[in-house]
Amino acid sequence: MKRILLLTIFTTLLNYCFAQEEERETKHLITGAIGYTYIPSAGTVHSTEAEGVFVPSIGLDYFYSITHKWELGLMCDLELGEYVLINKDLNRENAFVVAAVATYSPIKSVNIFAGGGIEFEKHHNLGILRLGTEYEFELKKNWVISPGFFFDFKEGVDTWSLSIAFGKKF
After folding, report:
1. What is the pLDDT of residues 76-134, one digit of tens each?
2. Residue 3 pairs with which residues in a beta bridge?
3. Mean pLDDT confidence for 53-59
4. How many Å apart are CA 40 and CA 64, to the nearest integer?
5. How far apart are CA 141 and CA 34, in angstroms?
């Protein structure tokens, strides 16, 4: 009887130890992103008509996993260009966007996010609402590549962006 009890305790402990190792889940994700933002209501610096402008951007994002379906994140993007918002008569130069987002994953690798923030720029700051999606390709050793597509609604100026993020889960 003692042997059976000891064997049961030993197997339970071993199972618990190995299960802990397998279930070790990453909670944090940090990514660097590159992409392009399209501003349809913008023109080049000396333009008087909205011809639409593509602006390159770089970003740094951080996400914290609450559950396997929900994450909270901070997305920071820097638009590397100068343009004019024709309908607002505003010059924009190297605008810096910060957005707090919530992410939901309806199926594995597909993330949908929404949130709000501010676009900082030396001439005038704009409030934003961000909606988007991305697909996460998991690589070895917790590395990821995520192409993404998102909209920013900025006080009467709508933009959309395409990006690709490279990141590490830890």
Report:
1. 999 999 999 988 889 999 999 999 999 999 999 999 999 999 999 999 999 999 999 99
2. none
3. 97
4. 33
5. 22
The residue type of 169 is K
Evaluate whether the domain defined by 25-169 bears CATH number 2.40.160.20. Answer: yes
Please state, in angstroms and rounded to a whole number, the distance separating the CA atoms of residues 96 and 78: 5
Q: Give one word for 2, left, alpha or beta, with left for phi > 0 and alpha for psi -120 to 50.
A: alpha
Note the pTM of the prediction, 2 decimals.
0.83
Dihedral angle of Cα 155, 160, 164, 166, to the nearest 10 degrees: 10
pLDDT tens digits, one per residue of 78-93: 999 999 998 888 999 9
Distance CA 113, CA 72 (A): 9
**Cβ 56 vs Cβ 68: under 8 Å:** no
The Cα 112–Cα 60 span in angstroms is 18
